[in-house]
Design a protein that fits this description.
about 25% helix, D-amino Acid Aminotransferase, Chain A, domain 1, binds pyridoxal-5'-phosphate, about 280 residues, globular, 2 domains, alpha+beta
């Protein structure tokens, strides 16, 4: 596989990153996942803007991103992925620093790494819906930064899979925040409900696109706290993400709900989202 590493496109075997890279030692870095739908990078500008925000928040110097589209196009072509949906993974760590110290030097040179891989279809989940679990959100208070420090996400997702669930949805003292790699929204009486943007959730690009679709289709949007005790009130639920796209939720393990199958608003949003991806 061809990858981008610090300014060059090279074969993956040729990449060598020092164990003194702060990405390795402290998870001191940020990332983005962007979807390539033949022939475009979906919402590229929004992803790059979020990447810059994440870098700024961690005081990591922002590398030049002027030619990012050309780099991504080159990676797609070299890896023969022009005609299939693919996931683009971008990671920037603060870079090499020796000796190991918690405090960082302002002149560390960031390590910049990009891969592309074929996207495996999630049609079954999107058509049939998925089961999710609920857990207390024990992450830090800056979940709006797309940091590579993902241990709570890793462990919760692992527990979800061990229990035959597609995703784990988190709550803080009962108020739902988001999933390990997705935002969440609900439908009640033809209105959409989703937790408000804050430092407790990632400002998802899919969430943003879905809210825009709602305004185009006259679906009222309520960005409001949602308590786990209210789950029974909702007619539909969906998890949202670049890889997840719009996936209906048909069961919250251990909770009493009225969700049974993917509902009409979910199907409408899925259809319109797909048009945007492939138009
Ligand atoms: C914690 C978290 N929330 C939400 C999302 C959805 O964000 P996006 O729609 O930008 O992919 C992700 C995506 O990976 C995520 O990791």
């Amino acid at each position: 596989m061809w990858v981008f590493y610090n300014g060059e496109i090279i074969l993956q075997d040729k990449v060598s990153i020092s164990p003194f890279d702060r990405g390795f030692q402290f998870s001191d870095g940020v990332y983005e996942v962007i979807k390539y739908y033949p022939k475009k990078f979906f919402e590229l500008e929004a992803h790059i803007a979020r990447l810059k925000n994440s870098l700024n928040s961690l005081e990591i110097p922002i590398p030049s991103l002027d030619n990012i589209k050309q780099i991504l196009e080159e990676l797609i072509t070299r890896n023969d992925l022009e005609n299939s949906p693919a996931n683009v993974y971008i990671q920037i760590s603060r870079g090499y620093q020796f000796p190991r110290r918690h405090n960082f030097s302002p002149d560390a040179k960031p390590t910049f790494f990009i891969t592309v891989e074929k996207f495996l279809s999630r049609e079954k989940e999107k058509t049939n819906g998925v089961k999710v679990g609920l857990e207390e959100d024990i992450r830090w208070h800056r979940c709006d930064i797309k940091s590579t420090s993902l241990i709570p996400n890793v462990l919760s997702k692992h527990r979800a899979e061990e229990n035959g669930l597609s995703e784990m949805i988190w709550h803080r003292q009962g108020n739902i925040t988001e999933g390990t790699h997705s935002n969440i929204c609900f439908i009640k009486k033809n209105q959409l409900f989703t937790p408000p943007l804050s430092n407790f959730i990632l400002p998802g690009i899919t969430r943003k696109v879905v809210l825009t679709l709602c305004s185009q289709f006259d679906i009222p949007v309520n960005e409001t706290e949602i308590n786990i005790n209210e789950l029974k009130e909702f007619d539909e639920a969906m998890i949202l993400g670049t890889v997840t796209e719009i996936t209906p939720v048909i069961n919250f393990e251990g909770s009493d709900t009225n969700l049974t199958k993917p509902g009409p608003i979910c199907k409408l949003l899925q259809r319109e989202y797909k048009k945007l991806c492939y138009e």
